Each structure stands twice: as C-alpha cells, then as structure tokens.
Amino acid sequence: MSGHPRTWFVVLPDTEAGAATAAVWGTAECRALHHPSGRPWILGHWPADEPVTAQAGPVALAVFGTSDADPHRLRRHAERVRDPRDVLALGGDLAGSFHLLATVHGTVAARGSLSGLRRLHLAEVDGVPVLSDRADVLAAAAGLSPSLDRLALRLAEPLPHPVDALPLWPELAAVPPNHAAVLAPGRPARTLAHWHPPAPQRARPEAATALGQALRRAVDTRTRDGGLIAADLSGGLDSTPLCFLAATGPAELLTVTIGSVDPHHEDAAWAQRAAHHLPGRRLVLAAEDIPAMFADIDTPGPQGDEPFAWTRTRARDEAVARLLATHGARLRISGEGGDEVLQALPAYLRTVLPRHPATAARHLRGHRARLRWTLPDALSALSDPRPYSAWLARAADRLTHPDPPRTTQLLGWGMAPRLPPWATARTAELVREQLRAGQGSEPLAPEHAQHQALRMVRHSAAAMRQLIDATARAGTPYSVPFLDDQVLDACLAADPATRGTPFAYKPLLTAAVAPDVPADLLRRTGKGDFSPDTYQGLARHRAELAALIDDSTLARAGLVDPAVLRQACLGLYPPGTSYAALDATLACEHWLRAHGTSRHPASPTTAQGA
C-alpha cells in the first residue's frame, strides 16, 4: 500500500534502566528525542516534521499530532514548568488533536486526547515502565500474546464502559483519556486525572460562542500550513460548516462528495447547494466510481492493535484516500464525530427535570411524539434509580436477550450490549465474566446524558483512530475536528436542553456557525441514510463473505457458529440485529487471522443458548 508508513512512538523514563531498554526497539532504525540528561526519551517512527519540541533547562516538551503549538510558544511554557502537573494545564490551551509529552526534572508526564483518538498504553518491558501510542508495539516488545477472552468482548455491540477500553493484551494498561501517565524514577508508574466533564449549564448564546471559537481554531489548525486540503461535502449539517470554515484559511480547498446507489438520496442536492457558495475545486464521486460496501472483505489489509471497526467501508475509504493523494491533498477533513458531540440523548431530561420541570415536561412531550413512546414507559424509565454498576450487572445478565425498549435505553445509562445470534454459548460466558468484573466501575460522568455522550465519543474515536491509520497509509489521512478536546469540552458544557431538544436539529451548531455559513444551508433537519448501499454491497460480495466464513478462525476458536453466520450473510439478515454486529464480527475475524491469541476455548462450536 502506498502513502505514509506505519507510525508509532514509545516513551521511556529518565533512568539507566530506561536507557538500556531503548535497545529493544533497535534505536539505529528509529527516530529519537532525548531527555535533558541525554538519555533516550521518545523513540519511534514518525514523519520528520511530526513533533513540535522545545526545551528550557531540565524541562522538555513534545507535541505529536495536529495542534497549533509552535516551538517558541512551547519554550515559553517550558520556562514556566516546575512540576509535571503544570504540563497538564498546557494541553487545555492548545487546539487540535495530539499527544503532549514532557520530561520535567527527570519525571515523565504524558497525555493523549479526551476522546481517546490519541491514546496511550502502559506496560513493563524488561521490568521498565514504558508508554506507547500503540498497544501492539508494547506487546511485541514485552513478548506478550493477545487474549481470546478479550477478543470475544469485541463481538458484543455496543461495548460499554469500562470494558470498551480493555487492551487485547491483558498485561497492558490503557491510560484513561482524561488522565496523564507519570513515570518518576524510583516510583511505580501512575496516572493523574487532568480533566473532568464540565457541568452542563451554559445557556445557548454562551455555549454557541464557545463552540464557534473552538471549531474555528480546530479547522484553522488544519489549514494554516497551506497546501491542498480535501474536505467532505456530504451536504450534511456536520461536514458543510467545516468546509466553509476551511475555505477561510490559507489552504486551497478540494470538496469531496460521495454518491449513493439510492437515486433519491438527499445528500447530493444539499451538497450541490453548498458548493455554489464555496471556492476551490470539487470532486464528485458516484457510487459506481468507488468500491461498493463490503468490497475486498476477504483481504483484510493491515491490522493494528484493535479489530478494524469499519470493515464494510474500508476498501472505499482507502480508494478515496489514494485518489485524493493523486490530487495532492495532504489530509481529508471529515464531519465524523459531530453526531456524538452535538446531540444529547434524551437522558438529559433527568438533569433538566429537577431544575426546570416545565421545560422537561415540554421536551418529554416532543420526544414522545417523535419516538412514539408511551407515557408510562417514559416515566418508568426516567424514574429508574439504578446506579451504573447495577445497570452493568443487568447488561451482563441479559447479553443474549431481546433488546429492551429504546425508551429505557435512551433515558437511562445507554444502549445495552448484545451478542449477535451467531455468537456461541461459550462467547456469551466469556463476555458475561468480563462485564461482571467491571461492575464496580463508576460512570464516565455523573449525569446519564454526559456519560452516554462520552461513551459514544470514545466509540467513535476508536473507529476513527483505525481509519486515520489506514487512510494515512493509503495516502491521505482523515482528520476529525469534532473530536478535538476544545470542541468536546465546549459541547459538553452546553445546557443539555440545547443539545438534546426535540424541536430543532443540532441548534448549538447552527448558532455557532451562523456567521460563517449561508442561512439556507443550516435549515436541514436530518441526514442521509446509506442502508441501500449496505444492502447492495452485501449482495454483491456474498461469494467473498462465504469464503471467509467457510474458513473462519473465529469458528475454529469456538466463538461463532459458522452456519448461523453464513445464513445471516447469504440469506435473510436477522431482524433486530444491526449491521454493526456484522462489522464487529468481520473485524474480529480479520484481526484473529493476523494476530492469533493465547487462549482458545475447548468447548465445541455451538449456537448460543443462553
């Protein structure tokens, strides 16, 4: 595959043992940054212009990723740093999506992004605590094997907190996205929280102003170096404003519109309307011009440290990345993540009800009309007092049950995980065990709606992290401003009745970008549905799917029943089972073929009966 090589880095403590451990990665073949002491600090493979660095005496800083940091600004910060905790505040001042790494008087502090798009893992390598942005890099260095138990978890959809963050190698520890890792000589590695979800209290005008500023900084960070920038122009309310913001920067704009097999798809008309107002070039790709969904499903492509979530669109995304590279685009701005940060699920009514009961009642009526809830069901769900740990326990018990009413899920802690019908009884047992092991966990935020938003953000970020890696290798990486720290913080601080109102579509965004986007383009109240493309792709690539299932490593490991899976793919797809479940299964199949596992259940492959 052409394009950028695979990138990664590891972070070493400022000790003699840390310096000796550097040899594990063959330092002659790696790029390297050094502690002020002269010992190796950061090793890895990255583009020459990737990190922004600065040093002031015994303090050094490095920023990897997309940010508005520059060496002079970083040096001014380094001059003021006295303690690793001082570094954590710096991350909140920078726009973009990045890792921030520091070495301060011999102590290392490192953090990723709040969404988890830029993440960190911790492991011991030859007895030395080491950090990395890639779990597989650490696992290889430490000689670890992945666990089939952990892979079985990935067959459940959607995975809840905290099991969604468990590495596939049990000996590794994931650093929570809102924490920093600290490596101090002579002390065990530890983590420090540097961010907590803001109280959702900002009124719409103030919240819209904050979001507008955050989005402009996010897009400017991506366009400020000029060149050619591609930007998705689907006509949707997420991607369209980003195109207009990108058009104001110094970069040349190339908008990209991808068609659907559905001739009545609304995206094309909205994209055309927006294109009339935008400068630069436009690239319109009809559905027949690019690979169909599920194309190349029998050729999995490179596998990283997680199963590749977007299996059905991987070939399409890589093909577009290669095409954009031939046009000279250095990145592709996408509106992915917008749904997760801009909308609050109806659970926000729990927060609004005690403070503004009249507003809560009016919004409940709106949601009931839109979603066809009965009043008793809605009131019962709203009054459910169960803490998160009890919700997780019930989710473990009901993994293979029919889905509960959406009323219950949208007004509670979120969508309960379910296993697909082709998962075996052994899979259900493995997943239940791990869900129950997490029952003492606290939610991601005290408010139900904030917890749901953060879980969905992390789910989206995990998928986008893999897609960014794949499209970077193909030539033009994705870039997702809606998942930047400052954007996420601005959205979560908004009054949830503003984000979740049933009476308007993404009103926080439309207010935030009103100065930048023609008013008629902000009146859209929905988004396009690509289900027909999914159905067509599945039908077109049934032969490849059949071959994959007939030689399934998941089936040999006892995790799926191949007969049930084959019927789902080649016959009538099971009603009530999302295509995300099939994506997850195919992703796990490809990943297991690439990596193998350390544990294989001995029980025979049987259809789940629990």
Q: Would you give an account of this structure?
A:
Helix 9 packs across helix 17 (448-474) and helix 11 runs antiparallel to helix 12. Residues 600-610 have low confidence and may be disordered. The chain is built from 25 helices and 17 strands. 41% of the residues lie in helices and 15% in strands. The longest helix has 27 residues, at 448-474. It has a six-stranded antiparallel β-sheet. Strands 4-5-6-7-11-12 form a six-stranded antiparallel β-sheet. A five-stranded parallel β-sheet has the order 15-14-13-16-17, sandwiched between helices. With 610 residues, it is an alpha+beta fold. The chain starts with 7 loop residues before the first strand and ends in a 15-residue tail after the last helix.
